[in-house]
Amino acid sequence: MPAAPFEDRARIDARDKVLDRTAFTADVQLPNMLYAMTVPAGIVKGRIAAVAVEAAMAVPGVVRVLTASDFGPPTPPPPGASGFAAAPPTPTILPDVGYRGAPIALVVAETIEAAIEAAEAVRARYDAAPAFSPLITSDGAKHEPAEPVEAGNAGTAMARATTTVEVEYECPAQHHNPIELLSTTAVWEGGRLTVYDATQSAQTTRSNVARALGIDPAVVDVKSRYVGGGFGQKGTPQRQTPLVARAAMLLGRPVKLVMPRGQVFHNATFRPLSRHRIKIGADAGGKMIAIQYDADHQQSRHGQFPPEYHESQPQMYGVADYHGTTANVRIDTQNPGYMRAPHPHPASFAFEGAVDELALKLGQDPVAFRLAHDTTIDPVTGHPLSSRFLNECIAEGARRFGWDRRRAAPGSMVLADGTQVGFGVGCGAYPSITSANIATLRIGADGTTRFAVSAHEMGQGIRTVIAAALLRELDIDPERLELQIGDTSIVPQHVTAGSWGTASALPAIQSAAAKMKAAMDELLAGRTISGNLHRKLAAVKRPYLQVEVSTLAPGQDASALQGLRSAGFALAGPAYPAFTSFSYIAHFVEVHVEPRTRRIRVPRVVSVADCGRVVSPRTAASQVRGGVVWALGSALREETEVDPRFGGWLNNDLADYVVPVNADVGEIDVSFIDRPDPLLNAVGAKGLGEVAMVGAAGAIGNAVFHATGRRLRRMPIRIDHLI
Ligand code: MOS
Fold first, then answer.
1. What is the pLDDT of residue 84?
2. Alpha-carbon Rg of the chain, whole angstroms?
3. Is 231 in the pocket of ligand 1 (CB under 6 A)?
4. Residue 345 phi, psi (nearest 5)
5. Which residue has the higher pLDDT, 365 or 83?
6. Which runs of E-coded beta strand occur in 332-448?
7. Looking at ligand 1, which atom is closest to the CA of residue 690?
8. Does residue 531 sit in helix, strand or coil?
9. Which residues sit opposite 106 in a β-bridge?
10. Could you tell me the end-to-end alpha-carbon distance of the chain, in angstroms, rounded to an integer?
């Protein structure tokens, strides 16, 4: 029986956040704590010849300056590790510099002021090597093709096409800018290391720190209670964490580091520049029949952020013949990595643009064209798609937006003052990935409930989701419900990313609730006692009941639990043994282009999502709004620029890296199809956070074209491109 719709509930941590009572990792304060500051490398590539620390040590309050000699040799990542699992080089301080800004020393002092002053006093000599700065076109860049993604035979199908478009789109390097910076506080006490890390990935952080420092993971606990924005950057083990842990172990006092934003731009992951060459062929009936899509992206020389640009495009529009290639372009930079809707966002900017170009060439309305390409089959696996309400999203979005008021000809909608108006549509899909999970549930006669599960709260609202699902299953006191998440000392933690948090938590919640109800029935042995579960326990004089459960994603076997315990990886999907599952969204955008300044405004967006059953309507709508706002930033503002002379990121602060502010954001109308997926889990919930952003930048680009007749194939689209 699929679950009924969930009621709207307030975000459970909203009040504390508004009252500034929420302790983020950057807020951790411990007695006797020291403050650390990293010293960034002044070259792109080479070897550190000498580090002079005397001037830094002379700053009053400085306790120690750690350099490469305080760390052992780097430990390679586990074989086959990539993506979230790969954090090479193991982030200690290395004698070799691989990118500008890499830490060459860690200053530890009694105060933050002393740490900053001393960090600036550290001097280094380098043997610099020639470097290829973060430009994808650098002559020294190394092109490295990856395995193609294929369905049918795109070459043969393309030969039958009567209309084709062949276009190249580009998305720039962009950086995450969460409010909370990378933050670590480490405590070494009684042979145990406790690390408070602002991470989406406590378990991976634990294994990575242990590996980097050569200690047993069993003596390491990682705690991540509230993350002030993650977006994928905090899903990868972070550069500073083992440095701070090492300092705490050497000094025997708690050590805290909050990395300055300028260094975060260089030391944390980012969205790499990507290029997208797309050819789509349509037959005489105006149906898309073949896609050839070649993508490449910036890659570091020492890491692997997989170029997965074909993870949702082949399944979008029912095209049976698809050929997708990717290549890494290796340059001297820090590792790029996952950033909100990592591959589908840039891919859909390109792909939705190309689809729009093809619809125009065929003389078809972009909405009708997309509606005509619905499908039920994954062409890559041949399996059915689990639930797909994309056409419902498009139809509902078109209705709410008033698409029928659109005049087809580009540049034909003009206001009295000469403002050009454009209506654009863009769609997206994002894989429904799920993780195995382990949870414990304890209900007390004293009115308390403790539920421990694998999840991290990055502001997306996972606590609210978990509470909503739990409170629907069990008659317990909502005021005294404690959720223990993001803590390796309680239950193993999955990397919480890729929009799999909700769909991975729900089975554990349902299973724990069922087991608890069974245990309660056994305890009561047929007696009828009125009141909630706490009252019942009190009546039979039982202080508490506790159950533990583990759950698997569809098709997984128990070995997944071992992956979860050891490194936080136990993922399955979107291609499950019998079906493939995605979440979907359709965005409708109105842009206004001012006649004289060519300033682009976005007064109105309508977004309709199919994420299966919506568990927490309020935080879900908030995720979609956030995704749309970020798409505005990505499509119209954000680009991290490179200074070719110095090979570093130039606009490494919020003054120069321009993100949208309230004045840039107009009306965003969010709604959901809210129909359960019958196969993914019993509640029928799919993922949402990432898909929220997918296709929105494409819709903006398409709207700019419709307003102006200018097809701009590179993000960000700025005033100077329209003059
Ligand atoms: Mo996801 S890339 O962790 O926003």
1. 47
2. 26
3. yes
4. -65, -60
5. 365
6. 420-431, 434-435, 437-444
7. 4
8. coil
9. 38, 66
10. 57
Distance 293 CA to ligand 1 centre (A): 24
Where is pLDDT greater, at 81 or 618?
A: 618
Length of the chain: 723
What is the spatial distance between Cα 648 and Cα 713, in angstroms, rounded to a whole number?
A: 25
**pLDDT tens digits along 70-96:** 987 766 666 555 554 455 445 578 888
Report yes or no: 447 and 534 within 8 Å, Cβ to Cβ.
Answer: yes
Q: How far does residue 430's CA lie from ligand 1's centre (Å)?
A: 12
Tens-place pLDDT, residues 580-595? 999 999 999 999 999 9
Q: What distance in angstroms lies between residue 367's CA and the mean position of ligand 1's atoms?
A: 29
690 lines ligand 1 (CB under 6 A): yes
For strands 582-593 and 420-431, give the pairing. Answer: antiparallel
* Cα separation, 122 vs 115, whole angstroms: 11
Contacts (Cβ under 8 Å, ≥6 apart) of 563: 436, 569, 570
In whole angstroms, give the CA distance from residue 44 to residue 41: 8
- Exposed/middle/buried for residue 147 (C-beta within 10 Å: 0-12, 13-18, 19+): exposed
Q: Ligand 1: distance of its center to the CA of 516 in Å?
A: 33
Both tokens of 252, joined, read: 């025997």
188-212, pLDDT tens digit by residue? 999 999 999 999 999 999 988 998 8
- Which tokens go with 154? 């795109």
Q: How many CB atoms lie within 10 A of CB 597?
A: 10
d(CA 44, CA 134): 10
Contact 463, 481 (CB under 8 A): no
Q: Which tokens in the block code for residue 216?
A: 């047993």
Strand extents, DSSP E, 579-664: 582-593, 600-610, 642-643, 648-649
Ligand 1 pocket, 351 CB below 6 A? no
Atom of ligand 1 nearest to the CA of 340: 4
Using alpha carbons, select from 382, 378, 358 the residue that is nearest to residue 368.
Answer: 358
d(CA 607, CA 175): 25
- Measured between alpha carbons, how far is 558 from 541 in angstroms, rounded to an integer? 36
User: What backbone phi and psi angles, to 5 degrees, belong to 306?
Assistant: -60, 140
Q: Which atom of ligand 1 is nearest to the CA of 499?
A: 1
Of 507, 510, 508, 471, which Cα lies nearest the Cα of 491?
A: 508
C-alpha triplet 24, 26, 31: angle, nearest 5°: 100
Cβ neighbourhood burial of 377 (10 Å; 0-12, 13-18, 19+): middle
Residue 234 Cβ inside 6 Å of ligand 1? The answer reads no
Of the residues 201, 339, 571, which should be mutated to test ligand 1's pocket, given the most ligand atoms within 8 Å of the CB?
Answer: 339
Which atom of ligand 1 approaches the CA of 235 most closely?
A: 3
CB 122 within 8 A of CB 107: yes
Whether 131 shows a pLDDT value over 90: the answer reads no
- Is a pLDDT exceeding 50 seen at residue 494? yes
Query: What spacing in Å lies between the alpha carbon of 501 and ligand 1's midpoint?
Result: 11
Residues forming beta bridges with residue 284, ordered by sequence position: none
Q: Check if 497 has its Cβ closer than 6 Å to any atom of ligand 1.
A: yes
Q: Is the pTM of this model over 0.85?
A: yes
How many angstroms is it from 231 CA to the middle of ligand 1? 4
